[in-house]
Amino acid sequence: MIKRMIVMLLLCALILGSVFGYKIYGGIMQRKAMSAMSEPPQSVSTIKASTSPWQNEIKSVGTAHATQGINIAPEVAGIVETLLFESGQDVEKGDILLRLRSTEEQANLAALTAKLKLAEITVARDEKQIKVKAIAQATYDADKANLDNLLAQVSQQQALLNKKNIHAPFAGRLGIRQISLGQYVNAGTALVTLQQLSPLYVDFTLPQQNLTHVEVGQFIEARTDAFPQTTFKGKISALDAQIDETTRNINVRAVFQNHEKMLRPGLFVSLSLTIGEPETHLTLPQTAITFNPYGSTVYIVEESKNKEGQTQARAKMKFVKTGATRGDQIAVLEGIKEGNEVITSGQIKLRNETPIIVNNKIHPANNPEPEPKDK
Q1: Which of 34, 110, 160, 367 has minimal CB crowding within 10 Å?
Q2: CATH code for residues 42-54+279-358
Q3: Distance CA 174, CA 165 (A)
């Protein structure tokens, strides 16, 4: 019985040993086969690292505002009797824009004027009589007070009559008319907007770290998608006295002469502020840089011999120090040299020493001043 058990155990051990041996042998042969296989090359696009002039700029966006802009509104109520302007018209300071009906006010003024003339005659007669003591001093004082009161009433009525004529308080361009002839308007009703278009303000914000680069009188450029081919030139006119505690931004105002009156209040504009002297940097498309928590990297192309002795292009990882960006480009300050062939797309498939095939039929965007295209 014991001999049978020993024989069975030996047989089981032999069978298990054979199975495990076969598995181990298969794994060894598989590793040998895989090591004999070469890694397939990955398709990438490349660009030669080159230097280009680089002007540091501060970018921002802002909104255009009129130097003076108001809604024209009457101080008194009335019926629109005469309209003397058209929508979109340019006007000068003091131009009469419209008149409200003033028949009643004119009649009241005429009545007060007649009373004033009588009061003047009465006071003139009283002055002669008071000299000879023909009238009492109280009578003269009452007539003189009545004269002063009528003078004040005439002035008040004339001021009310003047308010029936609506004038342009400054030169500018009118907006779209909001009222019609014969319409009754209350005091304070907006009749039309008036905007002074030249010069024009553009207000924007900048981070506090840019404060040392900005000063009053500095030149600035503005562009807008309303006129994509035009660059507007202006100057910094004012900086706010304080920095916003929430955003840590400072409000800045620039002034543009806007002689052609192309810019309008409310327009959204992109701003560019040139700072410092022109520099020269190695420039790459931003797609060439891989940003990691441990540092920014690029892959450059290096050639080496494979096992068959053939020349094979391979990807070599390099750590780089990057600088400012402009459009699709980024400045590289350290890590690569001019003339290095840098991989611009396909990096996600790469690791160090990965064999590659360069295919430059399609290149990533590399425009320092890209413009969006409507499709």
Answers
A1: 34
A2: 2.40.420.20
A3: 17
Phi-psi region of 157 (alpha: psi -120 to 50; beta: other; left: phi over 0): alpha
Q: How many residues does the chain have?
A: 375
What mean pLDDT is reported for the chain? 88
pLDDT tens sequence across 320-330 = 999 888 888 99
Q: Distance (Å, rounded) from C-alpha 249 to C-alpha 303?
A: 50
CA angle 280/285/290 to nearest 5° reads: 110
- In this predicted structure, the answer to whether residue 92 has a pLDDT above a threshold of 90 is yes
Burial class (CB in 10 A: 0-12, 13-18, 19+), 148: exposed
Nearest Cα to Cα of residue 332 among 302, 290, 275: 290
**Domain with residues 57-101+164-275, CATH architecture:** Beta Barrel (2.40)
- Domain range summary for the chain, segments of one domain joined by +: 42-54+279-358, 57-101+164-275
Give, in degrees to the nearest 5, the angle at Cα 142 between 140 and 144.
70
159-181 per-residue burial string, b: 16 or more CB within 10 A, e: under 16: eebebbebebeebbbbbebbbee
Confidence of residue 34 (pLDDT cuts 50, 70, 90): low
Q: Which two tokens stand for residue 292?
A: 């990691």
Q: Phi first, then psi: what are they for 45, rounded to 5°?
A: -110, 150
**Which letter, b or e, does each residue of 220-258 get, where b requires 16 or more Cβ atoms within 10 Å of its Cβ?**
bbbbbeeeeeeebebebbebeeebeeeeebbbbbbbbeb
Which residues, listed in sequence order, are joined to residue 60 by a DSSP beta bridge? Answer: 271
Whole-angstrom distance, CA of residue 57 vs CA of residue 329: 13
The C-alpha torsion from 317 through 320 and 324 to 329, rounded to 10°, is: -20
Torsion region of 330: left, alpha or beta (phi above 0 gives left; psi -120 to 50 gives alpha): beta
DSSP state of 40: P
Buried b (16+ CB within 10 A) or exposed e, 339-350: ebbbbbbbbeeb
| pLDDT reading at 215 higher than 90 | yes
Q: Where are the alpha helices (DSSP H) in 80-188?
A: 103-131, 137-162
Cis geometry, peptide bond prior to residue 368 (ω within 30 degrees of 0): no
Residue 97: Cβ within 10 Å count: 20
